[in-house]
Write a structure and sequence with these properties.
The complex is a heterodimer of chains A (about 240) and B (about 120). Chain A is mainly α and about 240 residues long. Chain A contains 13 helices and no strands. Classes of the chains: A mainly alpha (about 240), B mainly alpha (about 120).
């Protein structure tokens, strides 16, 4: 048997195992994280975006199906749930700050969530996007599992919503810093809060990597806006569909 | 560390249970977050002052959150591999996402800055 054949056989064996895809994912992430940190946390080098591009590139070059990749990567994906529960810890550690701002927090989550839904509907409607896609777009600013649940409830396509939420998260995390600098918002709690409300977990990860206070307010905004949107959106959607 | 992981799993499981049982639209892990926060506020462990269970939960959570970005990579790759779902509407949808996200970001940041109490950092 030739060396090439032997290598191919080993590859066929390895790519069927979770270990290979786990290693690839962590490797790409560590490289992306290194780039991000050595660039002084330059937002366009968002570690989620870079790692996703690297891993996807590998899958496309080697013609690997996503399902096979996910079979390994699901072990990392699984940790999203426990990590969400763990977000309670930074909130608790900063509870004194959070509770003194509770009026601002609750009011901003409520008004901000309604604003996010309204602007999404408004632009989609103006652009003549079809109704199923609009329904899939509406919950885009909250964390993917909540967004997918809402999407299903109002008649959108959950997998389309998953795509839209991730793109929303990366957009906010990668461009948010520039936009907030441009409008001269310097207060770290306000910046973090906006990141958490508009870009859920990916925005929260970005805020946490930059500033502790920003990270805490991002986590608070992400959790609360998820809950509020889950409760409000089905009601708002009923009003919108009555108007159409 | 194992005790802390166990506590986190138990609370997530409790969250998933409540979500399914009452058919809530809020997902299990977010309910788990609220349960964990409630538990911490009730027990009030003080960080640093003791090397007990409270500190171990805090350390474990920090380890999990340190590389939060990594956890979004698998689903992010799925996004790239399934972009064809958007078909002809890709440009319009991207337009909605970019304009919607950035305008919401500015709106919320201004609103929060305006509503919050003036702290010593200004």
């Amino acid at each position: 048997m030739s060396d090439a054949m032997r290598l191919y056989e080993v590859w066929v064996y390895l790519q069927a195992e979770p270990l290979f895809w786990l290693t690839l994912t962590i490797g790409c992430y560590l490289f992306a994280d290194f780039l991000y940190k050595s660039s002084g946390l330059f937002p366009l080098l968002n570690p989620v975006a870079i790692s996703v591009a690297l891993v996807s590139g590998c899958l496309i070059i080697f013609d690997v199906e996503y399902e096979r990749y996910f079979n390994g990567a699901k072990f990392i994906h699984f940790l999203l749930g426990p990590a969400t529960v763990a977000l309670a810890i930074p909130i608790y550690l900063n509870w004194r700050v959070v509770s003194t701002e509770r009026v601002a927090i609750l009011a901003t989550v409520f008004i901000g969530s309604v604003f996010a839904i309204a602007i999404t509907f408004g632009i989609s409607y103006l652009l003549n996007i079809d109704l199923v896609t609009i329904k899939s777009l509406l919950p885009r600013n909250v964390t993917a599992p909540i967004a997918m649940g809402i999407s299903e409830l109002i008649g959108g396509i959950p997998s389309l919503t998953a795509i839209i939420t991730i793109v929303t998260g990366v957009t906010g995390a990668a461009l948010g810093t520039f936009v907030l600098d441009l409008v001269r918002i310097r207060n770290m709690s306000a910046r973090g809060f906006a990141f958490g409300l508009t870009s859920h977990g990916i925005g929260t990860a970005r805020a946490m990597s930059r500033d502790k206070t920003a990270g805490v307010f991002a986590a608070v905004a992400m959790g609360l806006s998820g809950v509020i949107t889950a409760l409000l959106l089905p009601l708002i959607f009923r009003i919108i569909s009555d108007l159409l | 560390m194992l005790h802390a992981i166990f506590l986190i799993f138990v609370l997530q499981l409790a969250g998933e249970f409540l979500q399914k049982y009452f058919a809530l639209t809020v997902p299990g892990p977010v309910i788990g977050l609220l349960l964990m926060l409630g538990l911490l506020l009730f027990l009030k462990p003080s960080p640093g002052s003791d090397s007990g269970f409270g500190q171990r939960v805090i350390d474990t959570a920090n380890t999990l959150l340190q590389h939060l970005s990594l956890l979004f990579v698998p689903i992010g790759v799925g996004v790239v591999m399934h972009l064809q779902l958007l078909e002809s509407q890709l440009v319009k949808v991207l337009g909605v996402i970019i304009i919607g996200t950035l305008s919401t970001l500015i709106f919320t940041a201004f609103l929060f800055q305006w509503l919050r109490k003036r702290g010593p950092d200004e």
